[in-house]
Write a structure and sequence with these properties.
The protein is an alpha+beta fold. 24% of the residues lie in helices and 40% in strands. It has two helices and ten strands. A hairpin with a 4-residue loop joins strand 2 and strand 3.
Amino acid sequence: MSDDELFARLRAAAEALDPVPEDLADRMVAVVAVADLSREYALLTLMEGIESPVRGDAETTTLQFSDGSATVLLHISGAEGGARRVDGWIDAEASEVRLTQGERTWTTEPAEHGRFAFEDVPAGLCRVQVVTQGDVKDLLTPQFEV
């Protein structure tokens, strides 16, 4: 008996004695989707009730994202004309920070102590990617609204 014939008989025996459940593919897709949602929810922490020294009565939001090896803190405030200003701090060595909204991307280099800022960001859904240095992997946040 050849190897191909032996493997065919083993496959047939496995399919007869322990068949793959019909709904396995659907269940696996659901498990992966839920795991990704749980990861994004765990990554995003909305910090409410933080008093911040901002001028005027503009609406502000503070968000914190972490992947266990790096943390980024974002402070979003209103600017003139309905635009937003996003101030941020990263606690890891980073060479670049990108804010992406649709097809548009803003790029900056963090200053001393990991501080960075983006001005004139229109309202909408955004993501921040921190390009880190060394052994720390890049941090990509889930989408958030500015």
